[in-house]
Design goal:
Elements (H helix, E strand, L loop, with lengths): L1 E3 L5 E5 L2 E6 L3 E5 L8 E10 L4 E9 L8 E10 L3 E7 L6 E4 L1 H25 L5 H31 L2 E7 L2 H5 L5 H7 L3 H16 L3 E5 L16 E4 L2 E4 L5 E3 H14 L13 E4 L2 H6 L8
The protein binds zinc ion.
Length: about 300
């Protein structure tokens, strides 16, 4: 990797073509969007041996007007596989959920492809990996991350628009114990790094919007009734039924309301919250075109 100081390069656009101008008259043609305009920071250039291309990352300092967020207003988040994010914002009636199903299908498609080429590599060359396989792994990861980034950006932007000052996230230890019978989901659960990535991404994105993120322990949040605290309940697929007070709700909503209950510490505010979330989907294809989609509730 080569690092270029902020005052040692410039980016020029001539007739729709972009050039990177370096010292000693070196001009290199560049492609890609220049998304931000502002005071330029340093430039990092590196070579990627999987794609055989050179890449440059530029940091830019941008002035943005700050909306005032209220530290009092919070959003509560339950992370999962079937629904990547299930959330409830204080004061709202309608919980929301970002479906992970399109993401799951895409992940599975690449996983099968990898397995297929691995079996060939093993049979033909007695090797576990090839350049092609490594490319597929990379592709699978990039596509996953791209959708996650889009989902998180939309969610954080929504929080920002609603004046949320803090996002409370149920810590992900619970995800492993949640014994979904969905084997595809389980395959992804074991890629534990994915959830670390989601949390790190959520922290960074929220920070950019001036919103704090706090992780709280997720103790039995999906197996206690949020209305009457009974543990006498029944769960099947995404449905939660309390056998004591007859509450019926979506399991992820139960999870998120229970996270809210712990944090609100007896302070009410989730009376009348709907038991089922509005489902929002971000597909891997859509994610590539609209990083700043509008979320309508
Ligand atoms: Zn109950």
């Amino acid at each position: 990797m080569t690092v270029i100081r902020n005052d040692c390069y410039r980016i020029e656009e001539v007739g729709g073509k972009k050039w990177l101008v370096l010292p000693k008259g070196l001009r290199i043609r560049i492609t890609g969007e220049i998304r931000w305009v502002g005071k330029q920071g340093r430039l990092e250039i590196f070579y990627d041996d999987l794609t055989g291309r050179w890449y440059a990352y530029q940091s830019v300092k941008v002035d943005q007007p700050r909306r005032t967020t209220s530290p009092e207003k919070r959003a509560f988040v339950d992370l999962g596989v079937i629904n990547i994010i299930t959330a409830w914002i204080e004061g709202e009636k309608q919980p929301i959920a970002f479906s992970g199903k399109p993401l799951l299908a895409d992940w599975w498609y690449w996983t099968k492809k990898i397995a297929y080429y691995q079996s060939i590599a093993m049979r033909v060359n007695k090797r576990y990996t090839t350049k092609r396989i490594r490319k597929f792994y990379r592709k699978r990861q990039l596509r996953f991350r791209h959708v996650i980034n889009t989902i998180i950006h939309r969610f954080v932007k929504l929080c920002y628009d609603k004046g949320v000052g803090e996002i409370i996230v149920g810590d992900i230890k619970g995800i492993r114990q949640n014994n979904d019978k969905n084997s595809k989901a389980n395959a992804m659960i074991h890629n534990f790094w994915s959830f670390r990535y989601i949390i790190e991404r959520l922290k960074t994105t929220a920070e950019n919007f001036g919103i704090k993120v706090k992780l709280v322990k997720e103790n039995n949040t999906s197996s206690v009734c949020p209305r009457c605290s009974s543990k006498n309940c029944y769960k099947r697929k995404r449905l939660f039924k309390c056998l004591s007070c007859r509450l019926e709700a979506h399991r992820d909503v139960v999870g998120v309301i229970n996270i809210a209950r712990v944090s609100l510490n007896g302070r009410d505010g989730f009376n009348g919250v709907l038991a089922h979330p509005v489902l929002l989907r971000v597909s891997p294809v859509e994610a590539q075109t609209s990083p700043q989609g509008i979320l309508a509730l």
